Task: inverse folding
């Protein structure tokens, strides 16, 4: 099995701002695996918040030897690398390679077949509240908006958005509040019919999450705190649900374990995304039917998707046809 790694910068349609940082572009790692005349592609968008960047992920991937492995050894990435970005890119490519070798779509390899996915939310990043409301007005007709909060004036921004958008509304604080701020803001936001709130406080404070969840009418989902299946087990009494991402878990295999763990401990499941192209989005969509909610709009936030594998229409996301991710040609 041969491995090639490249760094590719993806231009965003506009700056993407959350409570703790902003992006003008995504610097993503792409992986190409080849074996027996077949290939598979993987992608990850490393996040410095987890102590990773493109250089460190590339270095981790450059140090591995895949000579003794074969495409259907899907547990191998978990044995080679720890959870995180490097393993996620490798794991996605490995699953793509296995599906192409078998001549089946990736969703058949994950076991979801033709099951439909939930409708995806579409994201509004942090800008001026009037601009956020204007964006919401342009999304009328979409079933779900997820808007970023965790900044001064966020309650006013949500009030303005709700005047423009009658559909389902989710919020994501990205660790932007203290415990006391979260309790206060969520009380103020409750009248606006908010479906759920992600990660209201900084990660690592499970007692704080329990306190916020216990006081909030709005269901609380962990995001930054929810990486692997072990993380999910620890969150059982602290939140109502978890937002699982391939990057945090380390790929498809561990994300599936995390989904099943969430089900076992009574948590709802969201499949989330990063600023990624269709290479990673194909893997997200191949797991989406296993979730209660999904937020897999990453490719729609790019200026253009160089590797389209999914289509978006009025909140419905569908994979394109073909083996593996559906890409007809390798990314290079």
Result:
């Amino acid at each position: 099995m041969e491995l090639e790694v490249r760094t590719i910068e993806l231009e965003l349609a506009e700056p993407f701002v959350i409570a703790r940082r902003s992006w003008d572009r995504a610097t993503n790692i792409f992986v190409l695996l080849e074996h027996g005349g077949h290939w598979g592609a993987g992608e990850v968008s490393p996040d410095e918040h987890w102590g990773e960047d493109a250089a460190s992920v590339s270095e981790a991937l450059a140090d591995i030897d895949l000579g003794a492995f074969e495409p259907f050894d899907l547990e191998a990435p978990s044995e080679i690398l720890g959870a995180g970005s490097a393993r996620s890119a490798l794991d996605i490519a490995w699953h793509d390679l296995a599906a192409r070798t078998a001549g089946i779509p990736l969703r058949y390899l994950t076991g979801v077949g033709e099951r439909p996915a939930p409708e995806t939310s579409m994201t509004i990043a942090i800008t001026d509240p009037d601009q956020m409301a204007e964006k919401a007005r342009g999304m009328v007709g979409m079933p779900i908006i997820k808007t970023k909060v965790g900044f001064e004036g966020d309650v006013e921004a949500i009030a303005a958005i709700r005047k423009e958008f009658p559909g389902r509304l989710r919020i994501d604080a990205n660790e932007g509040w203290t415990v006391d701020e979260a309790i206060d803001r969520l009380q103020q936001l409750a009248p606006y019919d908010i479906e759920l709130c992600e990660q209201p406080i900084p990660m690592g404070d499970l007692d704080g999450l329990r306190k916020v969840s216990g006081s909030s009418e709005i269901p609380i989902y962990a995001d930054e705190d929810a990486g692997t299946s072990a993380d999910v087990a620890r969150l059982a009494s602290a939140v109502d649900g978890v937002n699982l991402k391939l990057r945090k878990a380390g790929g498809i295999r561990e994300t599936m374990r995390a989904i099943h763990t969430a089900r076992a401990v009574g948590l709802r499941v969201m499949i989330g995304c990063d600023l990624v192209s269709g290479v990673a989005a194909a893997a997200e969509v191949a797991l989406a039917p296993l979730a209660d909610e999904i937020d897999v709009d990453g490719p729609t936030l790019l200026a253009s998707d160089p590797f389209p594998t999914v289509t978006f229409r009025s909140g419905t996301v569908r994979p394109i046809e073909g083996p593996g991710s559906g890409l007809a040609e390798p990314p290079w």
In short: The radius of gyration is 19 Å. The first helix runs from residue 54 to 62. Residues 138 and 164 are 9 Å apart (CA to CA). The chain has a mean pLDDT of 97.
